[in-house]
Amino acid sequence: MLEIGICDDQKECTETLRSLLNGYLEKKQLDAHITVFTSAEDLLQADWQGFHILFLDIVMGKQDGIQAAVQIRRRNPDVSLIFVSAFLDYATMGYQVKASAYILKSQLSNNMEKVMDAVLMDRNLNQNTIEITVDDCVVSLPLHQIEYVESRGRIAIFHGEIEYHTHMCFHMRFSDIEAILSGKGFLRIHKCYIVNPAHCITIKNYQAILGNGTMLPCSRQDYSGLVRSLMRWKGKNL
């Protein structure tokens, strides 16, 4: 069963969100439990670590939704955060906590189904892992935690929030890594880099820009093809 949280200090908005979610869940024949909070303080005092999806208003009382999301993301890296706001100005702030979506309150009814479809699809994809054998031991790496893979000679470095590490290193050929990630949606952008498009904001000026601010060089060969590949991926995951 899905555990969904709603945190907004406006009763009208929480009721609208609950109603739209109930309609979506009924249509998709999904079981879920919805919990409503009227402040970030109430949310953080509750047992929020069990939530799968969390809708957060940004402008609220003493503590805003971004501040709450930062604390939640540290303890629950797998929760899908969806920001709901009356203002578009705060949209870019969602990158700080790897938000899954940002919805304007005026467009809730139009966008709820599309956003929930994308979030649930992403959560299903997030269950995927790759397995790497090291000294007769098998290491499982969740795909969604991998931001990019870097090659340094015979060392492959997986960057991201991987099992609470910022990176993990393996002694293996980069061509073997590319084969393991084949069909998983990852993009080979350079002879030394493979990126997870879920963590890539854009590709421009021959650089891939990730959500955490990291900029990686892109190969000039078939550069336009890289851009098209990223745009196709994002179009499928809107």
Structural account:
By secondary structure, this protein is of the alpha/beta class. Helix content is 32%, strand content 34%. A hairpin with a 4-residue loop joins strand 14 and strand 15. Helix 1 crosses helix 4.
What key attributes describe this structure?
32% helix; globular; 5-stranded parallel beta sheet; alpha/beta; 5-stranded antiparallel beta sheet; 238 residues
- SS summary, helix count: 6
Q: How much β-strand is present in the residues?
A: 25-35%
Whole-number radius of gyration? Answer: 19 Å
Main-sheet strand order equals: 2-1-3-4-5
List the uncertain runs: none
N-to-C order of helices and strands: EHEHEHEEHEEEEEHEEEEEH
User: What oligomeric state do these chains adopt?
Assistant: single chain
Specify the biggest β-sheet: 5 strands, parallel
Please tell me the overall pLDDT: 84
N-to-C CA distance = 24 Å
Count of strand segments:
15
Helix content: 25-40%
Alpha-beta classification: alpha/beta
The geometry reads as: globular
Task: Describe the protein's topology.
Blueprint: E1 2-7, H1 11-28, E2 32-37, H2 40-45, E3 53-57, H3 65-75, E4 80-85, E5 101-104, H4 108-125, E6 129-134, E7 137-142, E8 146-152, E9 155-162, E10 165-171, H5 174-181, E11 187-190, E12 193-195, E13 200-204, E14 207-210, E15 215-217, H6 223-236
Parallel strand pairs: 1-2, 1-3, 3-4, 4-5
Antiparallel strand pairs: 6-7, 8-9, 8-12, 9-10, 11-12, 13-14, 14-15
Question: Gist?
Answer:
By secondary structure, the protein is an alpha/beta fold. The protein is built from six helices and 15 strands.
